Please model this.
Amino acid sequence: MIDWLNCNAGAVTAIATVVLVVLTGVYVTITRQIALASREQVRLHADARDAMERQDRRSLAALAKRLREAVDGLPYPAIQIGTIVQRVVLWTDDDLKDLDTLARAIEGADMAAAAQAVESLRYLGHVVEEIRTAEKGQGWNPNSIRPQDWATKIAVARTALDRLQEEPAPPRLARPT
Model:
């Protein structure tokens, strides 16, 4: 067998070379398909991320609008206890957490407005709950807060929520082609 290989070394080399060329071509084709599939996967991931951010933007705007409407239901500029006890619909802690979370999730969202809205809404909610709780018992002491604080927090909440309803411009990212 060794003698045969020695006699036909050129043919064996040519056959081995052809086999290597064919295998290399197969590997090139497979690698190209993998690269195209990877590029498509990156594009699909970017599209899904964009869709999620668009949904987050719509959710933030809708939540800010709903909270703004709740703030508009508060008596302004002065506190009117009867109005608060009877008809004010408040927001929940989850609403405030969602507002903060959505603002953080959206690139370009006004984080300062979100923080101002959350802080003002917490203050207002605390006062409303204090009034409701006290009204069931002995009555609420209006001297427990400064009237200008109430009016200021409402104004800050309104402005901040209005800013959050404005859709920030989405960032322009280079898209894979």
